[in-house]
Design a protein that fits this description.
Elements: E1 3-13, H1 19-29, E2 33-38, E3 44-51, H2 52-64, E4 70-79, E5 88-90
Parallel strand pairs: 2-5
Antiparallel strand pairs: 1-3, 1-4, 2-3
Amino acid sequence: MGSKRVYFLAHGRVQGVFYRKFTANRAHELNLTGWVRNRSDEKVEGEAQGEETSVAQLMKDLKKGPTHALVSKLDVEDRELVDGESEFEVRRG
């Protein structure tokens, strides 16, 4: 399997429900790099990079989200790989 990078945008009740922390924890468990942050329009966005199967698993998990989240839609777009990225970080919007 090869590496892949995606951009994701989560819609619904995804702020104030530990969605970013959930995303970062799952990304670390899956050995992915990238970032996640809240947006001013109450959505959460980010990018994730790693093995294709791990990225696919993260996207599956993000469609469900943590216990108190209600994800109405998850947009996903392929992106170019980023060289030299070493971790997954929670960014401040």
